[in-house]
Every structure is written in structure tokens, then in C-alpha cells.
């Protein structure tokens, strides 16, 4: 299955994919540390963060979050990141149609080479920049529905929908109610 269970302790691997600059690292930092650092440096390779959440009845869920970078140049390495992942979060920037195209490339790649049970989430980040929006919510939602993915728009800057994004992934992986 997608999660290893030790009766009440769940462990899940999540991987973030998407064009450079769409905000993958900021999303992870916002979720794990509750921070937004506009001067954060570009990730090289993959960085790994883990976060443990307490559920009811002393159960816990430990996320292993793989934040990736450089797949543009090293696409052959990408399978190393998403192998064994329970969920893949494919991120684009709502102000960048190129990044939305790139997201669709990653979705195809995951559909071909990811595990059959992998949960896929499509994330339109930088929702705070709605005045510069060039990818409509309707278009992205429609694409996500046709591809059996969750869809959510987030802002790592304002924290909008960041917890909801991870909750949606976790809920469907662990099938528990929060
Ligand atoms: P990554 O390459 O996908 O990991 O992207 P980063 O997390 O490094 O973010 C790239 C740039 O986008 C940085 O300058 C961030 O400050 C900025 N950024 C990330 N998320 C948001 C967001 O939600 N809103 C805005 N306005 N900027 C963001
Ligand atoms: Mg990064």
C-alpha cells in the first residue's frame, strides 16, 4: 500500500515536482516550519524534510517530504525521487503558463512510471498574485479531473491552503478523519 503502518504510526513519502521557481521549497517550508522566506536559496538536487503529526488515539503520521530541483536538467534522476512515494504534488505557478505545461509533463511521467496507487495532487501556487494570473482555475481544475488528481490553489506567501493541501494528501493516504 501507500503507507507503512506500525499499528498506529503511519509513514508516508511525499514528493514535490514542478518547474524551477514555482514555489516548491516555499510550500514545504511553510508547511513544516510555518515560515515564508522570500530570499530562500534555490534547492540543488533533493532536500528532505520530515514532519510528524499527532492524530487522535496517540497515533502519529510521519511525512517524509522530498523537495526536488534540477529535474529540468537531470530528468533521468526523477524516478529516484518519486519511487515509493505515496503522493506526488505537482506544482505550477498561476502566473506562468510555461510552468503549467511543465506540470502536465510531470503528470504524464508519473502516470507512466509512478506506482499505480500513487496519489496525485495538482497545485497552482502563488495564488496571492491573482492580478497577474494567466492560468485559470477552471482550466486547471478540468485538467485535474480528467487525470484523477486533486486540485488546489495555494500561496506559500500568505499560507493560503497550504495545510489543506497536505491534509488532502494525508487523508487519502491514511484514510483517517481529522
Ligand atoms: P522552487 O524552485 O519551486 O523551489 O521555488 P522557490 O520555493 O524557491 O520559490 C521561487 C520564488 O518564488 C521565490 O522568490 C519565492 O519567494 C517565490 N514564491 C514562492 N511561493 C510564493 C507564493 O506563494 N507567492 C509569491 N508571491 N511568491 C512565492
Ligand atoms: Mg526549490
From TrEMBL:
Per UniProt, which keywords does this protein have?
Nucleotide-binding
The keyword Cytoplasm is assigned to this record? no
- Nucleotide-binding keyword on record: yes
Q: List GO molecular-function terms, semicolon-separated.
A: GTP binding; GTPase activity
Q: Protein name, please?
A: Ras-related protein RABF1
Q: Entire protein: which part is shown?
A: 57 to 234 of 243
Amino acid at each position: 500500500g501507500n503507507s507503512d503502518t506500525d499499528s498506529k504510526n503511519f509513514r508516508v513519502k511525499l514528493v514535490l515536482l514542478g518547474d524551477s521557481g514555482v514555489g516548491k521549497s516555499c510550500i514545504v517550508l511553510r508547511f513544516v516550519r510555518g515560515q515564508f522566506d522570500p530570499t530562500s536559496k534555490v534547492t540543488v538536487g533533493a532536500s528532505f524534510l520530515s514532519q510528524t503529526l499527532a492524530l487522535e488515539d496517540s497515533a502519529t503520521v510521519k511525512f517524509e517530504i522530498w523537495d526536488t530541483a534540477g529535474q529540468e536538467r537531470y530528468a533521468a534522476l526523477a524516478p529516484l525521487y518519486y519511487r515509493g512515494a505515496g503522493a506526488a504534488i505537482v506544482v505550477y505557478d498561476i502566473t506562468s503558463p510555461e510552468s503549467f505545461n511543465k506540470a502536465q509533463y510531470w503528470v504524464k511521467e508519473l502516470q507512466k512510471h509512478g506506482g499505480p496507487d500513487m496519489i496525485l495532487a495538482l497545485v497552482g501556487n502563488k495564488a496571492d498574485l491573482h492580478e497577474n494570473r494567466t492560468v485559470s482555475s477552471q482550466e486547471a481544475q478540468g485538467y485535474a479531473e480528467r487525470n484523477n488528481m486533486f486540485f488546489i490553489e495555494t500561496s506559500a506567501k500568505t499560507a493560503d491552503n497550504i495545510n489543506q493541501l497536505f491534509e488532502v494528501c494525508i487523508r487519502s493516504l491514511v484514510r483517517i478523519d481529522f
